[in-house]
Amino acid sequence: MRKKLYEAIFESNTRAGKLFDIFLLWIIIISVLIVFLESIPELSLYHKKLFYYAEWSVTILFTIEYLLRIYVAPKPWKYIKSFWGFIDFLSIAPTYIDLLFPGYHYLLVVRIFRLLRVFRVLKLVRYIKESEIHFAALKSSFHKISVFFIAVISIVITMGTIMYVVEGGENGFDSIPQSIYWAVVTVTTVGYGDIVPKTFAGKFIASLSMIIGYAIIAVPTGIFTVEISRAGSLLKKCDKCNSLIPSDSIFCNKCGSKV
Amino acid sequence: MRKKLYEAIFESNTRAGKLFDIFLLWIIIISVLIVFLESIPELSLYHKKLFYYAEWSVTILFTIEYLLRIYVAPKPWKYIKSFWGFIDFLSIAPTYIDLLFPGYHYLLVVRIFRLLRVFRVLKLVRYIKESEIHFAALKSSFHKISVFFIAVISIVITMGTIMYVVEGGENGFDSIPQSIYWAVVTVTTVGYGDIVPKTFAGKFIASLSMIIGYAIIAVPTGIFTVEISRAGSLLKKCDKCNSLIPSDSIFCNKCGSKV
Amino acid sequence: MRKKLYEAIFESNTRAGKLFDIFLLWIIIISVLIVFLESIPELSLYHKKLFYYAEWSVTILFTIEYLLRIYVAPKPWKYIKSFWGFIDFLSIAPTYIDLLFPGYHYLLVVRIFRLLRVFRVLKLVRYIKESEIHFAALKSSFHKISVFFIAVISIVITMGTIMYVVEGGENGFDSIPQSIYWAVVTVTTVGYGDIVPKTFAGKFIASLSMIIGYAIIAVPTGIFTVEISRAGSLLKKCDKCNSLIPSDSIFCNKCGSKV
Amino acid sequence: MRKKLYEAIFESNTRAGKLFDIFLLWIIIISVLIVFLESIPELSLYHKKLFYYAEWSVTILFTIEYLLRIYVAPKPWKYIKSFWGFIDFLSIAPTYIDLLFPGYHYLLVVRIFRLLRVFRVLKLVRYIKESEIHFAALKSSFHKISVFFIAVISIVITMGTIMYVVEGGENGFDSIPQSIYWAVVTVTTVGYGDIVPKTFAGKFIASLSMIIGYAIIAVPTGIFTVEISRAGSLLKKCDKCNSLIPSDSIFCNKCGSKV
C-alpha cells in the first residue's frame, strides 16, 4: 500500500502517478490564481467568502499531500529537509500562520512560491538541466560579463551624480540616489519618464547616456554569443593531419583517417 | 473560356494574369485603407456615405472575384475549404453580416485579414519559404529559447510580487497581476511610466529588474545567432550516406568516403 | 592662379588646401549652429539682428566659395550637376529664397543640409567606403532582414487592430492607425506612455506584444552578425596578385595561380 | 618601522596589509554612503550634525592615510603625482575647501571619486586588465562602430529636423535642438514620453524612427560579436605546457619551446 502510494506521489511512470500529477498541476494553477485574484481589491471585497473557502480547500488538499509525502517517503526527515520538502511546507504554512496571527496580510504573498511546484510536476528542472551547455556558457560569460556590470554601475553612478549637479532638486533630481535611479532608467533604455531633464545641459548629458546605454548592450550580447558558440561548437583535432574537425566525427574530413 | 479565366485569376504568367494581379493588389490596398480610415472617428462621421459606397464597391468586387474563383477552380470545394479560400470568404463575409445583423460594428475589424491576400498576390509565401534556413534556425532555437522564456516569466512574476508588497496599492501597484504587468513593462525595457515605483526600496528593486532585463536580452540573441550561423554555415550532404557534413570536407566524417 | 585656387579649394595636399579646409569646416559648423540656435524661440526673439547678420555673413562666404568652385572647376557644368555641387547650392539657396519670398520660414530648415558638407571636408565618404565589408554585409543581410520587417509590420498591424477592439476609443485607442502607432511604440520597446492599456485584457495583450518585441530583436541581430562574420572571415590575400579571395581557395580566382 | 608600514599600506600579502585593506574598504564605503545620503534633503536637514561629524571623521582618517602614504613611499613626489596619489588627494580636498570657502556646496560632489579607491583596494584594475582580449575587441570594433555612430547622429539630426517642421512648437517640438533630443530619446528606444508626436504625419515619422532605431542596434552588436570572436579565436594550446598562446606564435610565450 505505502509503496503504491509512493509510486503515485513521487513517480510518474504508473497510471496512478500520471493522474496524480495532472490533478496536482490543476490544484497548483488554481491555488496560484487564487493568490493573484485575491490581490485585486474589487474581487477580494465582493467575493471574500469565495476566496476564503477556495483558499482553505486548496490548503487542506496540499496539507494532505504534504502529510502523505512524509508518510510514504523512505526517509521522512530527508524529504522534509530537502528543497522540495521546504517548498511544499511553504505552500501551506502562510495560510495557517494567517489563522494564528492575522494582520500580516502581506505574508500571504509567500504562497506565490507554490508556482515553483509546477517545476517539479512538469519535470522542468530536468529539462533545464538538459540545456546545460547554455548554462555553462552563461556561467563562463557571466564571469566575463561582470566587467560589463562594473562598467554599467560606474556609468550609472557618474551620470547620476553629474545630473544631480546639473539639474538639481527643482527638476526632480532631488538627491544622488534618485539621480542614479534616473540614470539606470535611462541607460537601460527603459525610460519611464517620471524624472526627465529640463535644462539644455541636462538634455545633452541625458542624450549621451542614452547613446552609451544603447550601444553598450552589444558587449554582453557579443560575449555571450561567442561563449555559447564556443561551448556548442566542440571541435577536436585530427590525430593524423592536425586539422580541426567536429567533435562527433568518426572519420577525419580532411585526411579520411579513422579518429 | 473557363481555362483562360483560371489562368488570369490563379496564375500570373500570362499578360491577363499580371493585369489581374495588379488590379487586385490595388483593390486590396484600397480596401484595407478604408478599414483604417473608417476607424478614425472624425473621418467616419463626416464621410459616412463615402465610406459606405467605397466599402460596398470593394465588397462587390471581391464577391465577384470569389464567385469567379469557385467557378473556374477545377475542384470548387477544395478551393473553398483551402486556406486562401477561407481568407477570401473572410474578406467579404463581415460586410454582409453587418447588413443582416447591424450593431456588431467591431466585427468589421475582421476585414483587416484582407491584408493577408497581399501575400498571395505578391507571392510572399514562396519568398518566406525560400528563407527556410532562418526558420529552421528560429525553430530549433525557439526550443532552446523556451528556457529563456521560462526565466523571463519567473523573473517577471517574482519581481511583480515583490513590488506589490513593497510599493502597495497607494503607489499604483494595486494587485499582483497589475504588478506583474509593471514588471513586464520594466524587464522588456518598454517603460511606459504609467506605473512607477515611489519608495526608495521600490526604486532599488526596479533598478535591479531593469539591469536584469537589459542584460538578459543577450541570451536569445546569442542562442539565435549561433543557431543561424550553424544552420547556414556550410553544411552539405554526403553523396554516399546522406548525412550532413561540413561543406569544406574532402572526406565524409561519417562513412569516410571521398566526397 | 586658377590652378592654385583649384588646388586650395578642391584638394587638401598643399598648405593652402589644408588651411582652406580648416577654415571651411569652422564656417560650416558655425552655420549649422546658427540654424540650430535660431530655431530656439527665446534666442531668435532677443537676438534677431545678430542671427540676421551671422546668417548673411555665412551665406555670402558660401556664395563666394560656390562661385569660386564654378570658376576653377575644369568642367563647371559637371561640378554644378554633381552631388556636391547640388549640396553647395542647397547651402545658399534658402537664404536668398527667403529674401525674395518671405513667409515660408520653415523652408530655412533645408540649410541643415550644410552639415553634409562636413563629410566632404573630413573625407568621411572615403572613410565610409573603406568599411565596404560592413556595407556588403548590411546589404546582403537587409535582403534577409526584409522577412523580419514583414514579420514586425504584420505583428504591429495585428496587435494594433486587436487593441483597437479590446480597449476602444475611451482608453486612447481612437482608431486603427492610432492603435498601430501604439503597437510600434510598444513592440520596438520605446514605450512613450502617451497611449497605455487600461483594461485587464488590454494589459495582457500588451504584455505579449512587449515580450514578442523584446525577443524578436534577436532575429536581425543574429542574421547581421552571421553575415558580417561570413563577409569578413572567408577571405584571404593571394600571394601573387594581392587580391582578396575566399579563404578556402586552392587557386586564386583573379590570377589563377596556385595559393 | 617605515618598511613595515609600507607593506601594510601599499601591499596586501601580509596580515597587517590585509587588515588595513579591509578597514580601508569599509571606510570608503561609509564615506561614499555619506555623500549619497547627505544629498537627500530630508536626511541632511534632520541629521545635519551627524553628517558633519561623520564626514570629518572620514576626512581625518583619509588625511592620516594620505600623509602616511607620503611618509612611507620611497619616492614621495612620485606617489603624489601618480594617478592614485591624485585620487587620494581628491578624496580629502573638497571637505577642506568647503571649510575655507563655504557656499560652493555642489563642489562636495567631487567626493564621489572616493569610489575609485575601491578599485585599488579590490585590485579591480588588474582584474580588468586580465580581460584584455575584450578591450582589444572593443577598441578595434569601436573604430568600426564609429561608422555606426555617424549613422546614428545623422539619423537623429535628420529625424529631429523633420519633426521640428512637421510638429512644430505647439506640440513640444520647440526648437531643432529640442527635436534632436526627442529623436535621441526615440531612436535609442528610451522613450520618456515627455515630448510626443501629436499629428498623424508626426506619428508616422516617429514610427519609422522607432523601427530604424530598433533594427540598427544589430550593427554594433554584430560588429562587436565578430570582433570578440576573432580576438578570442586566435589562441592555440602549446604542445609542451598546455597554456593558451596566440595562434600565430612560433615560440610559446610561457615556456619558450618551439611550437
TrEMBL record, chains A, B, C, D:
One of its GO terms (molecular function) is voltage-gated potassium channel activity. GO terms for biological process: action potential. It is a multi-pass membrane protein. GO terms for cellular component: voltage-gated potassium channel complex. The keyword Membrane applies. It is found in: Membrane. Pfam families: Ion_trans. Residues 18-231 form the Ion transport domain. Its main location: membrane. The chain crosses the membrane at residues 20-38, 50-68, 145-166, 204-226. InterPro entries: Ion_trans_dom, VG_K_chnl, Volt_channel_dom_sf. Keywords: Ion channel, Ion transport, Membrane, Potassium, Potassium channel, Potassium transport, Transmembrane, Transmembrane helix, Transport, Voltage-gated channel. This is Ion transport protein. It comes from Melioribacter roseus (strain DSM 23840 / JCM 17771 / VKM B-2668 / P3M-2). The lineage of its organism: Bacteria, Pseudomonadati, Ignavibacteriota, Ignavibacteria, Ignavibacteriales.
